[in-house]
Amino acid sequence: IPGLHRVSVVKFMPGAEYEEMHSSASQVYLHLKGKGCKLRTTEKDGVKSEHDLYPSHFDVLHPGTASKAWNDADGPCENLNLVLTDPAGELELF
Q: Most CB atoms within 10 A, among 7, 37, 61, 68?
């Protein structure tokens, strides 16, 4: 897939947290299973949102969007994450 930089399945154990921001990449979160996974985003223009992730729920983050994902449930949850860049551009992940 042109522009596909990373594919990962992330298992969040209870209490796990992860923050990141890709300055030149889009990111797709697809929730696979489990309860308690949440996603908070802050767009470049300062707009903030927070989502509970449910199976088959997905979010697409634009380049420059800061994100925090975490699990506040008693059991694990899993997400599929894709990082996509402009195939003709330079990659700047952070």
A: 37
CB distance 25 to 83 below 8 Å: yes
Predicted TM-score (pTM) of the model is 0.81
Question: Which strands form 58-61's sheet, in the order they lie side by side?
Answer: 4-12, 77-85, 25-33, 58-61
- Let me know: does 78 contact 30? Beta carbons within 8 Å: no
Token couple for 34: 């489990």
Q: How many CA atoms within 13 Å lie on the side-chain side of 52? A: 6
Reported as a pLDDT band with limits 50, 70 and 90, residue 90 is low
